[in-house]
Amino acid sequence: MSIKEIIKMGHPLLLEKANSVIEFDTPELHKLIEDMIETMEEASGAGLAAPQVGEGIQLVIFGHDTDRYPDDDSIPFTVLINPIITPLSEETEDGWEGCLSVPGMRGLVPRFQKINYKGYDQFGKLIDRDVEGFHARVVQHECDHLIGMLYPLRIKDLRFFGFEDTLFSE
Q1: pLDDT one digit per residue (tens) for the chain, 170 residues
Q2: N or C: which end of the chain has fewer CB within 10 A?
Q3: How far apart are alpha carbons 54 and 161 in whole angstroms?
Q4: Is this prediction's pTM over 0.90?
């Protein structure tokens, strides 16, 4: 396994639509997932998308325990390939987000509160979950990377976007 470089906002790959994964359960796919897990853990992230490490494919990983985000429910570690997200209601909620590709910054982002996501794990097994709250937010954030969308593009009011150490200094 190896830690991969996380590309930052401004890199053209982060603005492109990722390609579908055609083959599952391959040594190359397993190696990429192992590298992404190590990279996400090293960076203390809650999720990571393949485009963030220079791979333009529809693959995200996410999950966290309550140690890092004590105010939020834990999210089971998940490998999600070729995801489809369907809102389960029109209700949205604003929440603070950051991103490993936009280091040191946070923004207030509206997201659907309840969603269904479907996709596949690395072995081609179907995943189909209804989730809400922080879990739904993390999935939407990570899957945005697969359509070339970074969270700052979703911020409605740029007064609520800035550097963490300034926004939350008091």
Answers
A1: 799 999 999 999 999 999 999 999 999 999 999 999 999 999 999 999 999 999 999 999 999 764 555 666 789 999 999 999 999 999 999 999 999 999 999 999 999 999 999 999 999 999 999 999 999 999 999 999 999 999 999 999 999 999 999 998 86
A2: C
A3: 26
A4: yes
For residues 47 and 52, give the distance between their C-alpha atoms in angstroms, rounded to a whole number: 10
Catalytic residues: 142
Q: Are 58 and 23 in contact (CB under 8 A)?
A: no
User: Is domain 12-167 given the CATH code 3.90.45.10 in the classification?
Assistant: yes
Domain boundaries, the chain: 12-167
Give buried/exposed letters for 12-40 (b at 16+ CB in 10 A, else e).
Answer: ebbeeebeebeeeeeeebeebbebbbebb
Nearest alpha carbon to residue 21 among 169, 151, 130, 123: 123
